[in-house]
Write a structure and sequence with these properties.
mainly alpha; Rna Polymerase Sigma Factor, Chain: A
Length: 162
């Protein structure tokens, strides 16, 4: 069981890194949180029945662990994120396209951020609904709105670049 778990996690480690990167900015916190996600996944693995893909299950574990971590923090993350994003936006015209996209996605609320990331990873709306606990229709609407928000933000930043 342990060997199987390790292999599955190694194949899907990018999921953990991606979710953490979307919600946590400090490298030391990211490393700690990665270990916490692994611990939570291992503790929950015995209950994994294979009713969904392992990657979908791991997304859910990763997201729940990250959001729990953020709730435990005493700092006002919205204020810190706003300050960080304002600094990044001032340098946004200099940033590369991938960095701009990541910054635009990070400006979305937590659930929309996850929905769009899962979509970009190739998950279908039904699978995204399983991970988020939302209905398929709600997922579809939120995905559309998240895409529009990111496109609008990128257009705004691109105009500032010209």
């Amino acid at each position: 069981m342990e060997k199987e778990f390790v292999q599955l996690v190694q194949r899907n480690a990018g999921i953990i890194h991606k979710v953490i990167q979307l919600y946590v900015d400090h490298p030391e916190d990211r490393r700690d949180l990665y270990q916490e996600v692994l611990l939570q996944a291992w503790k929950s693995y015995a209950g994994f029945k294979g009713e969904s893909l392992f990657s979908t299950w791991l997304y859910r574990i990763s997201l729940n662990t990250v959001l729990t971590y953020r709730r435990r923090q005493r700092l006002d993350f919205s204020e810190l994120t706003t300050q960080h994003d304002a600094a990044m936006e001032s340098s946004a015209p200099m940033a590369e396209d991938g960095e701009l996209l990541l910054l635009a996605i990070k400006r979305l609320n937590e659930i929309d951020r996850l929905i769009l990331t899962l979509h970009l990873d190739g998950y279908e709306n039904e699978e995204i609904a399983q991970v988020t606990g939302l209905s398929k229709n709600n997922t579809t609407v939120r995905l559309h709105r998240a895409k529009q928000a990111v496109i609008q933000r990128l257009k705004t930043w691109t105009k500032a670049k010209i």
